Amino acid sequence: MNLEERIQAFVKLGDFLSQYTRNGLFKKEEVLYNDLFFDGFKHQIKLAKEHNGWFTDENILYALENWSKALTYSNINKWIKKYHIKDVKAKKVAIIMAGNIPLVGFHDFLSVLISGHDVVIKQSSNDKHLLPFLAKYLEHIAPKLKGKISFTEDRLENFDAVIATGSDNTARYFEYYFKGKPSIIRKNRNSVAILTGDETEKELLELSNDIFRYYGLGCRNVSKLFVPNDYDFEGFFKAMYAWHPIINEAKYANNYDYNKAVYLMSEFDMLENGFLMIKEDRSYSSPIATVFYEHYETLESLKNTLETDSDKIQCVVSNGLFTNNIGFGDTQIPNLWDYADDVDTIAFLLKI
């Protein structure tokens, strides 16, 4: 199967996913094998929701919308044109996926197949319904992919390289277990936003999406703010109010109530508005319904801090303050060439 055929397969998958949107599910007659797969994928979405309370319609369909927009011919070509993906000797690449947000491991899956390798996938129990169905769809539109995609719940064996994502604790296990194999091992990371007090209402509203999308469970969600010493949080809280219906969702509300009780009993200082708490804390990883904040003296000193802690940070959001910062509202819509942990997955796969 050549590169062009692989690209076309994923473009057709993007067309298939474009039918599933937050505005409704719209069956398109021109999409290949729709009679076989359209209703089946609706059922898988239903199963994913029932299995994992964090996987709401809103969150699943948001993820599907973004993947459908990413999987266009122009996007994929822009991504891979800098690589020499020809005459690749296919190796078997194992992927151990996280399950914190819907299809969180899809980029690794795409990268392995687009580069010409075979993939064996060990899914998280939290997200096990969507990807196997999409893999079957790929095999129908591109029969040459049959035999190149497999899933396992057993111990991984007979593979040539591995991409594994987990917590800091599981990463230590991965590093030991896979020490004899080429690997990408991903650990805990969080995203931060830098505020100056000059942000517009629209920018802060976009920041609310970076904080609340997927309930804040993703590594690209903003979990910490850096603010100047005299920062006034009034405008920040006003912008966050757009997400106030989130408190009506049981799992989020339970976490909010629990963490609020812990903070109150511990007599921690915090600010809250009925559905979000902000607490001054030097840590990067904040609990659900909480955002940490820390004051900075100067932007230059903050830049030094962020560089020192770069291995803990996934995204830095700001209004163009530093190179490679992400704009407000853009954390959950990465491009295909925006690699997790800033590790080039395709370059790794072409070297194994």
TrEMBL record:
Stored InterPro entries: Ald_DH/histidinol_DH, CoA_reduct_LuxC
Keyword vocabulary terms for this entry: NADP
Organism field: Xanthomarina spongicola
Entry protein name: Acyl-CoA reductase LuxC
Keyword Disulfide bond among record annotations: no
GO MF term list: acyl-CoA dehydrogenase activity
Pfam family, one: LuxC
Record flagged with keyword NADP: yes
GO biological process, one term: bioluminescence
